[in-house]
Amino acid sequence: MLLKDKVAVITGGAGINGLGFATARQMAAQGARVVILDLERANPAAAAAQLGSGHLGLVADVTDKASCDAAIAQVLQTLGRVDVLLNNAGITQPVKTLEITGADYDRILDVSLRGTLYMSQAVLPAMRAQKQGSIICVSSVSAQRGGGIFGGPHYSAAKAGVLGLARAMAREFGTEGVRVNCITPGLIETDITQGKLTDAKKAEIAETIPLARLGRPADVAGACVFLASDLSAYCTGITLDVNGGMLIH
Ligand code: NAD
Predict the structure, then answer these.
(1) Where are the domains of the chain?
(2) Which among 4, 79, 9, 69 has a CA at the least distance from the CA of 44?
(3) Does ligand 1 come within 6 angstroms of the Cβ of 93?
(4) Are 188 and 219 in contact (CB under 8 A)?
(5) Could you tell me the CATH superfamily of domain 7-242?
(6) Which of 37, 43, 107, 190 to mutate to test the pocket of ligand 1 (most atoms within 8 A of CB)?
């Protein structure tokens, strides 16, 4: 087992069809005790219960610093440590540059970018004290190629910000045993895409992808398990593309 007895916190992990829950499942299968954090309406406790016993689901809003700190305080009190943080919570909005309002900008950047900062700040003191930890930040191919398929420019900017933040944290905390890496998924079939693409459109997109299909949540989960585990012990500051070859650079 790659993650035996590790405590892994996953933000935005309660959506059963999402990347976070797929990762929660694979991490639990590798022996981790998983903590799912999500908004109240997403019911993180119910999602954690689906993983079996020994896992935890807590309500937390990643845009609220006090909420992030309280959730991690509870994790430390209940499970005693935190080894892995997956900064996965994110929202998107398919609008063009001239349509982005100030409120849209705040909303999109707050969840992906501010949320990644606040949650990382919440776990770093414990990881530092343990001299060990792995933080994985979910960016997007949209950051690298200037737009994916759904997200607007403010989404690309938020996800590009995540790349910069993660790389800077990797440089800052490497000597303290904390690794920080990013995943850049391509187009993965989750609730974010559901109902928004016809089968014909999916087939058209798949033709442009070297591996000839859209991604599955399990594809991203495998990459997250790699970055969480000691298999990636000498990787920090990296960006791991999980896009089927949609962007080769
Ligand atoms: P999803 O909608 O299933 O998951 C996002 C989760 O974040 C939801 O459970 C939601 O409740 C939670 N969330 C939203 N706001 C939150 C907040 N303030 N605090 C805590 N949780 C919050 O979508 P997904 O496709 O699984 O996306 C997961 C991550 O992957 C996101 O960051 C997304 O931008 C990124 N991503 C997805 C794709 C894709 O094609 N699906 C591609 C690239 C990147």
Answers:
(1) 7-242
(2) 9
(3) no
(4) yes
(5) NAD(P)-binding Rossmann-like Domain (3.40.50.720)
(6) 190
Tokens of 126: 């414990």
- pLDDT by residue for the chain (249 residues), tens only, comes to 999 999 999 999 999 999 999 999 999 999 999 999 999 999 999 999 999 999 999 999 999 999 999 999 999 999 999 999 999 999 999 999 999 999 999 999 999 999 999 999 999 999 999 999 999 999 999 999 998 788 999 999 999 999 999 999 999 999 999 999 999 999 999 887 777 788 898 899 999 999 999 999 999 999 999 999 999 999 999 999 999 999 999
43 close to ligand 1 (CB < 6 Angstrom): no
- Determine the Cα angle at 219 with ends 161 and 193, to 5°: 65
Q: Does the beta carbon of 187 lie inside 6 Å of ligand 1? A: yes
